[in-house]
Structures are given as C-alpha cells and as structure tokens.
Structure prediction request, 605 residues.
Amino acid sequence: MKKYTYTEKKDTRSGFGAGLLEAGRKNDQVVALCADLIGSLKMNDFIKEFPERFVQVGIAEANMMCIAAGMTIGGKIPFTGTFANFSTGRVYDQIRQSIAYSNKNVKVCASHAGLTLGEDGATHQILEDIGLMKMLPGMTVINTCDYNQTKAATIAIAEYEGPVYLRFGRPVVPIFTDPDQKFEIGKAWMVNEGADVSIFATGHLVWQAILAGEILAEQGIDAEIINIHTIKPLDAGAVLQSVAKTGCVVTAEEHNRLGGLGDSIAQLLATHTPAPQEYIAVNDSFGESGTPEQLMTKYGLDAEHIVLAAKKVMERKQKCEISI
Amino acid sequence: MKADIQELEKTASQIRRDIVRMVHGCQSGHPGGSLGCTDFFTALYFSVMNHDPKFNMDGVGEDIFFLSNGHISPVFYSTLAHAGYFDKAELATFRKLNSRLQGHPTTHEHLPGIRIASGSLGQGLSVAIGAALAKKLNGDKSLVFTLHGDGELQEGQIWEAAMFAPHNQVDNLISTIDVNGQQIDGPTKLVLSLGDLHAKWEAFGWDVLEMKGNDMADVVKTLELAKSRSGQGKPIMILMHTEMGYGVDFMAGSHKWHGIAPNDEQLQLALGQLEETLGDY
Prediction:
C-alpha cells in the first residue's frame, strides 16, 4: 500500500475560496455570486480583490442561478456559491432550463454537501445532489476530496467551457494530494494500485478509502484505490481496466446509494463486464444532527465499513468464480 | 432602425397571420398571448431596439431581448424571421420534429435570436438582470429588454428579481408585463389576484410606466420614453395593457385561446381579418 501522510487538515471549501481567487486573477471574466453565505463559501478573498466582480444576491438562490446564466451572455464566467442543498434541490428547474438546457458556462459551486455538514441536520444535509446534477444532459459533476484537489478543480473548471457542478464540504479533513497537481476533468486518479478489489471513492470518502486500504494491506488484501473526482463524465476506461484486474468493486461516497457514484459505476459495469459490487453510501435515508465523525460512523461511511465491504465483495467474487 | 407607425402596423398584421398559420399548421401552440403582444414585438424589433440580425450570442454593443413567457414563441419566431434572423420559410416547421422552432424557445437548436431557453415561467427577469450586469461590467451602454406574462408574476422568483434590480441599480433594463388579465384556468383576478401592479412595482423601487399594448403609436412612444429614462438609477417596468387574441375577433379577450389551435374553418375566418402585407411564408 502506497503511503499517504498529511501534516495539515483544512476544509475543502477553503480550497474553493483559494481556487476562486486564483481563477479570478488568471481571467478577468471570472465573476462570483453568493446567496448570503460569503463566509461559509470562503469567498472573502475574491471579494476583497475583485469587489466589482462579485454579486451579493441575498437569500434568493433561484434568482442567483438565473442571474449567473444571464451573465454568461456577455462573456462572463460566473461561479455561484451556496450550500449544496440550496445549489441543487432548491433550484433544480432554474439549473435545468436556464443553465443546462441553455448550455450556459456557469459553475455551480456547492459547499456543506452531505452528512459532514453536521449539527444543522437533515434539512441542510443534501444526499441527493450528485444524482440530481448528473441526470442533467451536458452537466459535468465533480466531488473533490481535499483542500488541494478542490483548489485545483476550481481553477480547472474556470478554464473549461460548459456548465459544471462542483461539490465540496464543511469539515476540516487531511490534505494528502499534491499542492501543485494539475486537475484533469474526467480523469480518475490512481491512489493505489492493487489486485484483489477495486475501491472507487469520491469526496471525503477518499481519505477513508486510504485508511481502509492500509487496514486491508495488514490483513493481506491488496486493494486498488481509485479516486473518481469527476462523476460525470465518468472515466470509464479507468473503471473497466481496474475491474478487469480485480473482478470486484466497492464504491464509496457521501451520498444516497440511489443516484450517486455507485450507480454510475454499476451501470457502466452492467453494460460491459458485470462484477460484484458493494455500496458505501447512505441507505436511502435522510441524515440527522450530530458531529461529522459521529454521523459518518453511524451511517457507515468510514474506513471500517469500507474494509467490511471489501471483504464481503471479495467473498461474493469467489462464490461467482466457484459457480462458474 | 426607425419605421413609421403605418409600416409597423403592416408588419404586425403579417406577423399575426404567421401566428395563426403556425399554430394551425401543427395544431398546437399559444395564439392568444402571441396575438396580444404582436404590436410590442413589432415595435421592439422594427423601431425601438438597436440590434443585429447577424446574431451573436453575447450581444455586445447591441440591445438584447429576453422572452420570459416562452409559450408565446409564435410571435417571437415570426418577428425574428421578418427581422432577418432566419428565413421565414422555416416558420412552417414550428413545433414539428427536427425543427429549430421548438414549442418553447431554446438555444439548444441554435436558432439565431434566442439567447436563453424559456417556458418554465419566472426565470427570464433574473436572466435579463444577469445580462444587464454583464453589460455594465463590459462598459456596454446598450439596453436589455424583457417581456413577461401577468400570470407569470405568480411565480415567486419574479419577486426575488424585483427586489434585486433596484437594490443594484440595474438601470439598463426595460421590462414589460403583458397585462391581459388572462391565464390558462381563467381570468387572473379569479385564479390568483395580482393586486395593484403599479403600486407593487413602484414599492419595489422600479420606474413604472403604463402602455396601451395594442396601440402601435403608444407602444413606440412608451418604449422610447422608457429608453430615455434608462441610466437614471432605476430599472424600468412597463405595464402593457393588451387584449389576449387581439386582431382576431373570436379569439380576442378570452383565456380560451391561450393554448389551442384554430381548425381549418377558424383559420380562414382569422386570416380574413388579417391583411397579408409582406407575403405569407
């Protein structure tokens, strides 16, 4: 197992804030909009440097999405910022008609996604946003795993022409990716090569997958860990190549098991090379209040559960092999 | 582009003929609101707006228009065709398979003149505000125009936009509401009353004008007045009083023709009331 260490923890949303500032410096067409959550979205540095390129919309997310769509007419590259719940479910029709169907170059940037939003509870913990966004034709869907990757992704989407949903979170998490990485949209990242089981992880679950990989290695299981940061378009080649080698799959995400990364991979495999798969995801339920750590444990989104899922899916693979 | 009132009325008559023929041709679509707003579209595209039919999506340096109540697409398409955005023969494809003239306007088929999809109501004012902000950032002095249905004001997002534009002094925006008092299920006053629209928009901080929407001279005059009042710190709202179905006596003034097509006999009756001035497509 390749060794990953960290010296610092930071929230992915701060990576977004840093990336936005840099994207703004690189291209004066980049503008930012926020619906009364500047501090939460870490947009202050951008606003300080480019006050004329920032739009405070107030608590009016529908208006924000369509203003962003309108700003592209005239060449702007708008980044909208609010919580994931208010970035997707609340404004689905606005994104569908004015951004996706109209093919506008808007970057929908969503913080506080998933259970790790924590104490605010289920009203704010959206677990359906990846599904909502990936079903929109032409929408790129990205879920980043740490500060550095989020920063790099933010810079990369500014340079990409087309609508993007960028999902990140609230809690501080280990920084374990390269600070100088070049983020390639749609290109999976090989975290660890292995032969026994493929673990495809996205967002906060990538670090948990690494921890799981270390536990599995101690038990003699050689896990391949791949970070799928871009859920759409899915890196089909990377997934199929890995599963051809390992023959079984664990998917890990901070999302409902319906409609997320796991479903994208299951669909790909079902139509190419079917393989046993276990889901690490929320089992079709809402979240609740609690600390991020408590919630991730209670809902089975941690290294320990990934280890169990990996062993289970390897057993299922063996049964398949025997029956063949 | 300036045109005298008589010329504009001739153009409007042809556009009205196109509308009933298009809707008849596919046996679907929305003739009522289209006919009611024909004078507005004609004035806008043949007199008031400085625009370029060699369509460019960004519209830098030209006035641009957003149709928020996208269901009145027949009048939008006919106007764009006569203004030179595309060949008017294409009007015959309206709402048919593989057409660029979708039931509701879309950028998806790359029809020149369309800058945003509309149909799901209440979004166009926000989009127009965004385009107006982009113009300001670009140092572009040209204007942004919109049209909305009065029933559309029942959508909450309209009022988010209504609050935003004055606060941010979006004064390069001239919006118009088609006040015809009708919506699908009946008169707006019975479905969901809109109250005193003049007072409401004024209270939100808009510069509010009133216009007789089926009087070409008044439409041109009021739109020119609106232009002269742009750039003074307030967005402008024109309450345009029209008759749904104007120009065809049996369609006029009723919500019944909001979204149904005339049969062959009704088509002939309607065309008998609308002079062919520029040649049918």
Chain B touches chain A through 38 residues (CB under 8 Å). The longest strand of chain B covers residues 173-179.
